[in-house]
Amino acid sequence: MDPARPAANGYTTPKPIAMLAGYQNGRLDDTIMRTTMRGLKMNITSARKFAACTNAALNAGLSLTTTGDYRSFDQQLSLLIQRYDKGYFAGRADYNTYQGSIWSLKPGMAQAATPGSSNHGLGRARDWAEMINGDTIPDALSTKARTWLAKNAPSFGICFEVRSEDWHGTDYAGDDIPARVLAFESGGGSNPNDPGHVPVFDPNNGLFSLYPLNPNKATIKLQTPQLHSDLVAYCQGVLRCKLFYHVVADGWFGPSTENFVKWFQASHGLTADGIVGPHTWATLDSIALTS
């Protein structure tokens, strides 16, 4: 196996991210985005993984940065025009097809995805770079940084999907949050001054991490077997910590939690059916975000 292209813990394609549902590539909006480094952005779920990985690299003596995170559709199109000549030119290293035309890679240029197909357009990819010798201009990754990323990035849910681009990392884990990311978010070995630090997810004590910022949560309801997830724990945590309901945020959606949800719905002008869907989530989120 190419060490610069890990097998992503058995995943062959990036796993889905729920908050991206309904969005077109390159047309994300700020409701699901988070500022990362150098004023750039990523979707909230992917940003968690890259923040944790960057922090771990810093602890290993590597000052990683980025030259590209989210790219809008217009930015992807501009990159195609910058790096490719429209038309077929024999002997070029790469060819692209866009709107029925062939585009040929300009000599000396790095490849670019077809506009509207890049993982950058989903805010789940980063072009890694490094800050060396205290300068302010990103440098190409050193051998030490490349080796560290190849070994460590997969444990943060990040893989390198293009063999020739060992600086291009992609969030392959999707909605799965690896243990090393959760450890960082809980303060285990994290740098408290890192702007990417995310509060621990501890719903019993009113710490909800990024759940209130995800507008595309799955609907949850009583079922057999009972559902168990952090999303259920978040719902329970809001009821417990913000409204003082006597519910434990254990993550199990059973009859007791269903009854608490019905009471909540009835007292907030919602249909009291015990089903936590879009309207109930929106109300819970607004309460979670209040101090």
Overview of this protein structure:
With 291 residues, the protein is α+β, with helices and mostly antiparallel strands. The protein has three domains: 1-69 and 123-190, no CATH class; 72-117, no CATH class; 201-288, PGBD-like superfamily/PGBD (Muramoyl-pentapeptide Carboxypeptidase, domain 1), CATH 1.10.101.10. The protein is 27% helix and 15% strand. The protein is built from seven helices and 13 strands. The chain has helices at residues 44-59, 73-83, 143-152, 179-185, 230-241, 255-267, 278-288; strands spanning 33-35, 41-43, 64-68, 84-86, 95-98, 101-105, 125-130, 158-159, 168-171, 201-202, 207-208, 227-228, 252-253. A four-stranded antiparallel β-sheet has the order 3-7-9-8, covered by helices on one side. It has a three-stranded antiparallel β-sheet with strand order 4-6-5. Strand 1 and strand 2 (41-43) form a beta hairpin. Helix 1 (44-59) packs across helix 4. The chain is elongated and about 70 Å long. The model is unreliable at 1-11 and 189-198 (pLDDT under 50).
Chain-wise SSE layout:
Elements: E1 33-35, E2 41-43, H1 44-59, E3 64-68, H2 73-83, E4 84-86, E5 95-98, E6 101-105, E7 125-130, H3 143-152, E8 158-159, E9 168-171, H4 179-185, E10 201-202, E11 207-208, E12 227-228, H5 230-241, E13 252-253, H6 255-267, H7 278-288
Antiparallel strand pairs: 1-2, 3-7, 4-6, 5-6, 7-9, 8-9, 10-11, 12-13
Helix pairs in contact: 1-4
Domains, number:
3
Please give the share of residues in helix: 25-40%
Whole-number mean pLDDT: 85
**Low-pLDDT runs:** 1-11, 189-198
Number of helices: 7
Strand content: 5-15%
Shape: elongated
* Strand order in space, largest sheet: 3-7-9-8
